[in-house]
Structure formats: structure tokens, C-alpha cells
Amino acid sequence: MATKPAPAAEKLRVDKYLWAIRIFKTRSQAADACDGGKVKLHGNSVKAAKAVSVGDKYDIRAENRKWTIEVTALLDHRVQYAEAIKYYVDLTPEEDQQMNQRVAASFHTGKRPSKIGRPTKSDRRDLDDFMRGDD
């Protein structure tokens, strides 16, 4: 199924666009970010209802992340990530990209990484057998 960009005559809201290109998980999060001053166009905060135009450059701050994007095409509905990245160009400075990677790497889910740390019950049995010399 091929996705097509929004018609040029149609006005597209910033919050809907940011949700469609997968910067935010929900449209309400995108609207809250706009209303909270976390989305800027040319250094000025934009409201969620502001119309998006091709060529606009937005500075976006989300939880622990920063983006600088340029709109290359309009998209009014949510699509797969592989399709969504075709509708903007990521202009995020190198230092912000490195910070984003550090934050992602330090994210802790509470689960222990596989095969690291305390042995499983089966591993413990194998280790005990090895130490006793059993085969």
C-alpha cells in the first residue's frame, strides 16, 4: 500500500504532523509539547494549530531528546517509521545526537541483560557438576 502525502491545498496542523512522522507517540503529547513551548519555528514557540509548510525548520524538545528537522513533504496520517522518515530531514547537530544516544544507552528497563550476572539454576547445576568432576 503506497502512502501519499497530504494535498497541498489542505492545511496540516503541527501537532498532527509531528505525530504522523513519529516524533511523538500520541497526538496529545505533540499538542502538549507545542503548547508547552517545546516546539519552535525560527526560534519562536508555535501553537499546536499552526499550519505546517514544506521547508519549515523545527527545533523540538521531547523527554530527554532534541531534534532539528526540516519538512520535506506533508503527511497527515501515521505510517510506518520507514515511510515516515521520507517526509522530513533530520538536521540535529552532532552533539545533540550523541546526547540522544547516551540517554538511550543508559535507559534502564529493570530487567537484567541476558546471560550476564547471576547464573540460572541449570547453569548452577552444570557448574556444581564440573567442580565435583561428574560427567
Automatic annotation (TrEMBL):
It comes from Chitinophaga parva. Keywords: DNA-binding, RNA-binding. Gene3D superfamilies: RNA-binding S4 domain. It comes from the Bacteria. It holds the Pfam family S4. Residues 99-135 are annotated as: Disordered. This is RNA-binding protein. InterPro entries: HSP15, S4_RNA-bd, S4_RNA-bd_sf. The keyword tRNA processing does not apply. The lineage of its organism: Bacteria, Pseudomonadati, Bacteroidota, Chitinophagia, Chitinophagales. Belongs to the HSP15 family.
